[in-house]
Design a protein that fits this description.
Length: about 170
């Protein structure tokens, strides 16, 4: 058997490189990690209107009396989560997603996000991300509820999103 000519080796390597680059370009902003990264980047760059593309609910806007109570609470959760991330940005904290756990049903993921502050302090939080029919979105209500479960509500005993002693599984969006 004759060894292949070098030109074929170069062509196959170039084709493989092209397929790899195209694959990563197409899926660059897809997946639960990307939803969390885009949420944090939108808050850090103060593009709050862009949160609608990565959050289960959009950022602060005029209340709509036609919305049901659940939608109004979801918008509050997005606002609260964005404020929390903004406080971490103000403290110059960096973050890393250190774990992913697919939840029962397969349409939601619990991500463990580790924040590191300039003084060396490390902090872990759970973020919930749900898969919609076309992309992944941060479930701000479940993520905020998890945070408040450990620290309580900023209003003391009154939790504007419900009972802080209970956690809710993220809802699977279809």
């Amino acid at each position: 058997m004759k060894p292949p000519k070098p030109i074929y080796s170069y062509l196959s390597a170039a084709a493989l490189a092209l397929v790899t680059i195209v694959t990563f370009a197409v899926f660059q902003n897809y997946g639960p990690q990307s939803a969390i990264r885009r949420f944090m980047m939108d808050v850090a760059s103060r593009h709050f209107s862009d949160l609608a593309s990565v959050a289960e609910y959009s950022y602060a806007r005029e209340p709509n009396p036609m919305e049901n109570e659940k939608e109004q609470l979801g918008h509050m959760a997005t606002d609260m989560l964005a404020q929390e991330v903004a406080s971490y940005v103000a403290q110059d904290a960096s973050y890393e997603i250190v774990g992913l756990n697919r939840l029962p049903g397969g349409h939601a993921v619990q991500a463990t996000v580790e924040y590191q502050f300039p003084n060396g302090f490390r902090w872990n939080e759970f973020w919930y991300v749900v898969q919609t029919s076309s992309d992944w979105r941060v479930d701000c209500e479940a993520t905020s509820r998890e945070f408040r479960r450990y620290f309580g509500s900023p209003n003391g005993d009154v939790d504007p999103l419900g009972d802080p002693s209970t956690t809710r599984e993220p809802r699977a969006s279809n």
